Amino acid sequence: MEKINTFWKILSDFFKEFGLIFLYFLVNLSLSLFFPDSQNTNDILKYTLSNILINLILLIIFLLIFRKDIIAKWNDYQKKFKTYFKKSFIIYFIGLFFMIISYNIINVFYNMPLNELANRQNLLSFPISSFINILIIAPIVEELLTRIILKRNINNKYIYIILSGSIFGFLHIFGSLVNGITYELLYLIPYSAIGIVLSLIYYKTDNIWTSISFHALHNLICLILIFGGIA
After folding, report:
1. Could you tell me if 27 and 141 are in contact, meaning their C-beta atoms sit under 8 angstroms apart?
2. How far is CA 39 from CA 44, 176, 204, in A?
């Protein structure tokens, strides 16, 4: 009887946590079906604003489920910020280099990804909400979704890092694939590259706020490149 109860508890915990990842994909699938036109400005804006709302809802859910761990790690992060930053700095910029190189090579032959196009359109029309989402909400939600849940359930370091990074990359092209833009599978390379680096950073520091911080830093660098006319 005890073994059965243990089994059902493990199964329940698994679906409770991985169900959040499934829910994220399901909601984004619905958005992609509702706003299928990647060239229509109104569709792009509606898609992105809906995505912001979904991220807010998911953020609240994550805070309710993982609040104790999130608070404990935040306190630890404040004390060891410099140590975590030194451990992660070089790793991040190596990943950034590979992402930029692979992204620009693909971009020579194919259009900008739908996710990137939507972000740029939204930045022009809704700059304040876009900055909040890109620099604060999205990094927290995406890191909790693709980092903390997987690490709690996967013991093998390399499987965790590759799977976490790949899911992170897939999140950024999922809407395009649903709409039949299959060439965006190539963009899985640069998105997964930065995802794998963030997974490694989280694994090395065992603090989700480190990967959240570098995720936010990464988004800030991308915004600077965009507004500087470099990207």
Report:
1. no
2. 8, 12, 41
Residue 96: Cβ within 10 Å count: 19
What contacts 152, CB < 8 A, 6 or more positions away? 17
Q: Is 180 helix (H, G, I), strand (E, B) or coil?
A: coil
CB 207 within 8 A of CB 64: no
Instruction: Write out pLDDT tens, residues 32-65.
Output: 556 555 555 566 666 666 777 777 887 888 788 7
Asked whether 25 and 174 are in contact (CB, 8 A), the reply is yes
3 state DSSP class of 171: helix
Rounded distance between C-alpha atoms, residue 77 and residue 211, angstroms: 11
Rounded Cα–Cα distance for residues 37 and 54 (Å): 20
Name the residue type at position 107.
N
| pLDDT, tens only, 106-157 | 999 988 887 787 778 777 777 887 888 889 988 998 898 888 878 877 888 9
How much of the chain is in helix, strand and coil states, percent to nearest 5? 90, 0, 10
Given a contact cutoff of 8 angstroms between Cβ atoms, the answer to whether 77 and 190 are in contact is no
Residue type (1 letter), 114: L
Amino acid identity of 37?
A: D
* Radius of gyration of the chain, Cα coordinates, nearest whole angstrom: 18
Residue 38 to residue 215: CA distance in whole angstroms: 25
